[in-house]
Amino acid sequence: MPVISGIFLFLVTVALMEGFAYVMHRWVMHGRLGWVLHESHHRERTGRFEFNDLYAVIFAVPSILLIYLGTLGSWGDWAVWVGAGIAAYGAIYFGFHDVIVHSRVAHRIVPRSPYFKRIVQAHRIHHAVETREGTVSFGFLYAPPVDRLKAVLGERGRAGVRAPKGSGAASTGRHGTSA
Predict the structure, then answer these.
(1) What is the pLDDT at residue 172?
(2) 3-class SS of residue 106
(3) pLDDT tens column, 75-95
């Protein structure tokens, strides 16, 4: 396969991974089965790791298999480029989500551009909801305008929204009970 075709396939894969990540986050991680692992991510972390980290392992498997089968198997170059695109998206996700938004690795990065500020704010708004339902903004590289996300939360009556730190108020679940 020509290198230019491989680079194109790599870039398309990275772009398509945003759609895949949205679907997985919205309907699997916030679904009944996926919430078993993902719920830990919407709570205060008590240690270095959380059950949600298992998703990184799960999502790495296709990338590893594609690269392996493309290099040592008979699948061909396309599999290596696609596997590398999936891995690159994983690295972007780790850098944005775990390092910048959740500060799981010490850094000095301050979001300054309007785009960067919007995706960080949108992800923080996503985490303001502690329950499986009622959450907004499931993408990682794209986020709707923050005002729109806040309006949607307001329309939902702020069900499941975490109380501000230090307020002493408990958040309310879907049915108005303490969550």
Answers:
(1) 43
(2) coil
(3) 999 999 999 999 999 999 999
Nearest to 101 by CA among 129, 75, 121: 121
Q: Model's pTM, two decimal places?
A: 0.83
Hey, what are 61's tokens? 């498997």
pLDDT for position 165: 61
For residue 161, give the 3-state DSSP assignment. Answer: strand
Q: Check pLDDT > 50 for residue 170.
A: no
**Burial class of 21 by CB neighbour count within 10 A (0 to 12, 13 to 18, 19+):** buried
E strand or H helix at 66: helix 54-71
